[in-house]
């Protein structure tokens, strides 16, 4: 070793820190490039700031961060024209645990004017050690602006480092990574270009990748979300929307704002104008991108709840360290506050746009089922979400809301009535609605996959309980039908008893009902979950119970059975139960036997 080379041991616990960085802190080794580029960008911003008072430190107009792979030497060099480091800086920033030149510099800016402060990204120190995820040796050659001498720091990350004099014609820093055998991908310019565009596309410092001696620009350099809204054109918004979400349509809504105060973040979010090609049911996590001071961190920070996962875009904050990992994000109080603020802002936008019924219809038909998930997933936001829901109705054309339904309720009506079924086309003609229509009572028609779940979670709206019309215990007697009902046939009580005996455990009860007008029978849920939930439970192998068979005592068929021979009841009971199941979108208990029964009845009718 030359006499000019100094060997030093790392500061306390650096060995453990290196092991933590390489094996635990970062979940993806490509993060190393993000960290080194962030440090380089910070160094250039610091030099630009210093030049305000020391003109000799001014950056050259073409200053940039250069990334140069060398396949023959198996090295990757990241160079900048930044503030640079002295020998003491190298020892303190890279040789001592948790020492951050960026952090120390930032602490000295408290007296500076806000508009003059550089926007620092990195954490030079901890983030720098990410280089050892891909390199078995790292050298850092740096010259401080205003100094004549340069120094080289070198280490294999095994517990010590060296310092020796070096030569560098201009201020700045060169970091040379001697790559590991399994890191060949980071010698490929196309791979490096991809990583820069992924992680650092929007930082303001130019980044170039050296390919065959030529420098190719690798980043856009403009963070659209950090510009004032007045400086962004609709065309720029649309271009960014298409790039961030790989969309081909125009956004239905664009939300662009900056939060300052307790929280400091910028956001540019979009509600798409059409459904994505991939079903939203398949991927339940929000993919809004989290940036820290323009540098991309992750799209898995769950900045919005699953029930707003259709929203796309970017949130960029000042209040998180760049080298925070996905795992650490889950317990970050600042991020929890950002989540609440962003969710509230999206809901406010939806509430504002919902005032235009035709405009809101386009959103609802694309993403309404997803928004409904918020009712049973988010107790805190339930009351904000409920007025945003839209429904088909038995009483009006098009879409209607819960506030509109409540405004139309009849005098004395105590509940909001709804009907859930799989088939939206069959809902409007369901026998379940006959008694409600006859009394002028409106029913909301629900057919989305989430509609079996959220009404029980909401329970009430505007102090009115939500009640499924398939719960046959509903008392409609206070609302007389438009036409007077016919007298009950003789023998109806005996018929009900005979049906109970014939059907046995296939039903939980048989009873007469005044909820029917044209149909002979209908199913109800009794006192348990409504019929749709019972069907879902049975399909999942979790029981679900048996429904109640309700019969219309004034229907000609029921009247004939009540007044006719007892031997006809046994066969008729099973057939009527299967018919009631079919009316509600279910299948007969035994489809083959039911088909034979119907076929035999048709044949007998033809012979007659």
From TrEMBL:
ATP binds at residues 35, 39, 80, 85, 93, 100-101, 123-128, 173, 326. InterPro entries: HATPase_C_sf, HATPase_dom, Heat_shock_protein_90_CS, HSP90_C, Hsp90_fam, Hsp90_N, Ribosomal_Su5_D2-typ_SF. Keywords: ATP-binding, Chaperone, Cytoplasm, Nucleotide-binding, Stress response. Residues 28-183 form the Histidine kinase/HSP90-like ATPase domain. One of its GO terms (molecular function) is ATP hydrolysis activity. It is found in: Cytoplasm. Residues 1-326 are annotated as: A. The keyword ATP-binding applies. The keyword Nucleotide-binding applies. Residues 536-608 are annotated as: C. Coiled coil: none annotated. GO terms for cellular component: cytoplasm. Belongs to the heat shock protein 90 family. Molecular chaperone. Has ATPase activity. Homodimer. PANTHER family: HEAT SHOCK PROTEIN 90 FAMILY MEMBER. This is Chaperone protein HtpG. It comes from Methylobacterium radiodurans. The gene is htpG.
């Amino acid at each position: 070793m030359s006499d000019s080379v100094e060997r030093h041991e790392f500061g306390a616990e650096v060995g453990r820190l290196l092991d933590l960085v390489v094996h635990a802190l970062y979940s993806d080794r490509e993060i190393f490039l993000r960290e080194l580029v962030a440090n380089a960008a910070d160094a250039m911003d610091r030099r630009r700031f210093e030049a305000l008072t020391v003109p000799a430190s001014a950056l050259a107009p073409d200053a940039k961060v250069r990334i140069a792979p060398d396949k023959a030497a198996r090295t990757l060099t990241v160079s900048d024209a930044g503030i640079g480091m002295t020998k003491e800086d190298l020892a303190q920033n890279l040789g001592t645990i948790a020492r951050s030149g960026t952090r120390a510099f930032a602490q000295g800016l408290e007296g500076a004017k806000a508009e003059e402060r550089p926007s620092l990204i990195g954490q030079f120190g901890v983030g720098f050690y990410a280089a050892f995820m891909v390199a078995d040796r790292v050298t850092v050659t740096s010259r401080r602006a205003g100094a004549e001498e340069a120094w080289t720091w070198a280490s294999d990350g095994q517990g010590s480092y060296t310092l020796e004099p070096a030569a560098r014609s201009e201020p700045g820093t060169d970091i040379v990574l001697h790559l590991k055998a399994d890191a060949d991908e980071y010698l490929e310019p196309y791979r490096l270009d991809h990583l820069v565009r992924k992680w650092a596309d929007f930082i303001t410092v130019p980044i170039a990748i050296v390919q065959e001696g030529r420098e190719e620009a690798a980043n856009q350099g403009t963070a659209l979300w950090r510009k004032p809204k007045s400086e962004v054109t609709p065309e720029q918004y649309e271009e960014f929307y298409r790039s961030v979400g790989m969309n081909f349509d125009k956004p239905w809504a664009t939300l662009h704002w900056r939060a300052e105060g307790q929280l400091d973040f910028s956001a540019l979010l979009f509600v798409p104008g059409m459904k994505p090609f991939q079903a939203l049911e398949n991927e339940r996590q929000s993919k809004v991108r989290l940036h820290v001071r323009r540098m991309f961190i992750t799209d898995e920070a769950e900045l919005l709840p699953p029930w707003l996962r259709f929203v796309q875009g970017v949130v960029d904050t000042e209040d998180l360290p760049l080298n925070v990992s996905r795992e650490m994000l889950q317990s970050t109080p600042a991020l929890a506050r950002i989540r609440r603020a962003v969710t509230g802002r999206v809901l406010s936008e939806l509430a504002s746009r919902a005032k235009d019924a035709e405009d809101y219809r386009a959103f609802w038909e694309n993403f309404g089922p997803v928004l409904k998930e918020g009712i049973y997933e988010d107790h805190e936001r339930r009351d904000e979400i409920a007025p945003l829901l839209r429904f088909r109705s038995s009483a009006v054309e098009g879409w209607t809301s819960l506030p509109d339904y409540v405004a139309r309720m009849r005098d004395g009506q105590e509940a909001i009535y709804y009907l859930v079924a799989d088939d939206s086309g069959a809902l409007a003609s369901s026998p379940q609605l006959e008694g409600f229509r006859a009394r002028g009572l409106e029913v909301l028609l629900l057919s989305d996959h989430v509609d079996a779940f959220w009404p029980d979670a909401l329970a009430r709206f505007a102090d009115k309980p939500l009640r499924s019309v398939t719960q046959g215990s509903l008392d409609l007697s206070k609302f007389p039908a438009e036409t007077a009902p016919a007298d009950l046939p003789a023998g109806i009580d005996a018929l009900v008893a005979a049906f109970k005996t014939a059907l046995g455990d296939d039903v939980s009860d048989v009873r007469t009902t005044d909820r029917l007008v044209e149909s002979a029978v209908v199913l109800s849920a009794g006192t348990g979950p409504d019929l749709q939930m019972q069907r879902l439970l049975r399909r999942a192998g979790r029981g679900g119970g048996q429904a109640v068979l309700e019969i219309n005592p004034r229907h000609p068929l029921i009247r004939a059975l009540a007044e006719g021979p007892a031997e006809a009841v046994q066969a008729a009971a099973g057939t009527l139960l299967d018919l009631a199941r079919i009316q509600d979108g279910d299948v007969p208990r035994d489809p083959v036997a039911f088909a034979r029964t119907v076929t035999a009845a048709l044949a007998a009718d033809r012979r007659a």
